[in-house]
Design goal:
Blueprint (H helix, E strand, L loop, with lengths): L6 H11 L15 H17 L7 H13 L8 H9 L2 H9 L1 H10 L8 E2 H8 L9 H10 L7 H4 L5 E2 L1 H16 L8
Antiparallel strand pairs: 1-2
Amino acid sequence: MDNAINISTVDRTFIAANLKVESSTAPSNGLKRYEFLEIIVRLANIKYLETKIVKTFSDATEKLITECILPNYQLEPWQEFRDSKLWTIDVNDILEANMMQLKKLYEHYKTPTKSLIEMEDVINMCTRDSNANISEKDIHFAFGYCQMTVANEERHYKQYQSLQFVEFLEFIGRIAHARFKGASAEMN
C-alpha cells in the first residue's frame, strides 16, 4: 500500500478481474489463477505505468513482482513436504495401521447430502471436537496444501471447497506436522 495503491484500488482491481458473465457458475467472491494474475498486472499498471515510472506492462509487472511481492513472500515448500515428511515408510505404516479409524473419522463429517468433508468440518474436527490445539491459520494452510489440482476450475471449482479421502489423509499428516513440529527430532 502506498500513494498509488490503497485498499480501494485493490478492491476495484478485484472487481474488474472477477467480473462474471451470466453463463459463469463460479462464485463471485473467489479468484481463479488467471484472475489473480490479471490483478497483479492491473496493480502493476496503476503503480508503475500510470505514474510513468516504467514504459511497458511487462516492466511494470516485473517491477511489482520483484519489489513488492517476492520480498514479502514466504515460501512454504509444497511438494518437498510430501517427498521428505509425508511419503515415507514410517508415515505410511502409521496411516495403514489406523486406516479404519481414519475412514470412520472422515465418514463422521459427511452427511446424506454432502459426500465430501469441507473446511468447516475440518475446523470443527481440529478445534471444537478435539483438543488438538491447532490454530485456524494452520488448518487453512493444511487444507489448501493437501488439495489436488482441479483440471477444469471454471466448471469444477467446488472441488477446492472439499476434501476427498486421499486429500484428508494428507491433511492429517500436515496437521500433525504443524502441531508437533519442533517438539522433538523424531517428530520433524
